[in-house]
TrEMBL record:
It comes from the Eukaryota. It holds the Pfam family 7tm_4. This is Olfactory receptor 2AT4-like. Residues 61-312 form the G-protein coupled receptors family 1 profile domain. The keyword Calcium does not apply. One of its GO terms (cellular component) is plasma membrane. GO terms for molecular function: G protein-coupled receptor activity; odorant binding; olfactory receptor activity. It is found in: Cell membrane. It is a multi-pass membrane protein. The keyword Glycoprotein applies.
Length: 349
């Protein structure tokens, strides 16, 4: 038995694999994986140009929202602290996937090293989870503002909001570290082709040649916990908000209260509806084509971080006013500079 094990280890080393012996079983770690999700798509160049546009808009608009809130002391409130949290998550989430997708298209190199694969997997699922929790935090802010207006300033403070945001980050970072870590218990001795648009969790563990029941269970349970849990909280929050709103006597008060929720409802719809639809059709009904699933999931994960800051910039009065004031200030400064140059030229100064 020891001789046969030595021969197996020697043959695996010859193929360039890294092995470790754990609990009398050989764990085979490949040098990396090949991402093949977009190989069969027609007009793929058009899609990647679109993704590049989405990434530029994501970075510019989210950074604009962060700067406007950071440099305006009037916006240093719990609600806008939650908005900044969402903007940081959005930039990181799209930075995790879109540049690597564009790199695959431009350089025609779809290989990703094993450790880098784990890093991308960890960052992506951490920030998808944080996106879900950030939307739940914004729902909490609306719940307190509308249902408990007299206690809002004492309950929903910057300190309490910071604690809530910190807890969501700690939880997401810890849980995703566990789920990513157990991937290292798998052996990959057959195909190394990942049919997805990045180093995706389920397509990777399904390539394993040993038992992946633990990884399947972790993926299923944490999908419910990290996406389903916040979504249920958001639904219950809006049920409570609607009950409170319809108890208001004034129609004006009802309209004003609901108007403050519009931007958040749009963000929730943009993030959850595509993911839930793809999950239900693909996982339970199994009606979705694998190619369409990859395309749909890539759009469902890349578009919300791009749309979120645009919605908040257009629908939130405070941000819109500050952005317009900033643009006017820049325009006035440019006009003054042009006027000074014209005067200088006129008098040959």
């Amino acid at each position: 038995d020891m001789i046969s094990l030595f021969v197996r280890l020697k043959s695996f080393n010859a193929d360039g694999f890294l092995q470790t012996v754990l609990n009398d079983s050989v764990i085979i770690r490949p040098p990396g994986f090949y991402i093949i999700g977009f190989q069969s798509f027609p007009y793929i160049s058009v899609y990647f140009i679109f993704l590049a546009f989405v990434y530029v808009v994501t970075v510019l608009f989210n950074c604009l929202v962060i700067c406007v809130i950071a440099f305006n002391h009037r916006l240093h409130t719990p609600k806008f602290w939650a908005v900044v949290n969402l903007a940081v998550i959005d930039v990181t989430l799209n930075t995790c996937t879109i540049p690597s997708m564009i790199k695959i298209f431009l350089i025609k190199d779809n290989f990703i090293p094993f450790n880098l694969c784990l890093v991308q997997m960890y960052v992506y699922y951490t920030f998808v989870s944080l996106e879900s929790y950030a939307l739940a935090v914004l729902a909490y802010d609306r719940l307190i503002a509308i249902c408990f207006p007299l206690r809002q300033n004492s309950v929903n403070t910057l300190r309490s909001m910071s604690c809530i945001v910190g807890l969501t980050w700690s939880f997401a970072l810890g849980v995703t570290a566990f789920t990513t870590g157990i991937i290292t218990r798998l052996s990959f001795c057959n195909s190394l082709r990942v049919f997805s648009y990045f180093c995706d969790y389920a397509p990777v563990f399904r390539l394993a040649c040993n038992d992946y029941t633990m990884q399947w269970f972790a993926a299923s349970f944490l999908t419910v916990l990290l996406l389903g849990g916040p979504f249920i909280f958001i639904l219950l929050s809006y049920v409570t908000i609607l009950v409170t709103v319809f108890r208001m006597k004034s129609l004006d008060s009802r309209v004003k209260a609901l108007a403050t929720c519009v931007e958040h409802i749009i963000l929730v719809a943009v993030f959850y509806i595509p993911l839930i639809t793809i999950f239900m059709i693909g996982f339970y009904l199994r009606l979705i084509d694998p190619d369409q699933r990859v395309l749909s999931l890539s759009l469902a994960s890349c578009l919300p971080p791009c749309i979120n800051p645009i919605v908040y910039s257009l629908k939130t009065k405070e941000i819109k006013v500050r952005v317009l004031a900033l643009l006017r200030k820049n325009k006035i400064g440019t006009d003054h500079k042009k006027g000074f140059v014209q005067i200088k030229q006129k008098f040959n100064l």
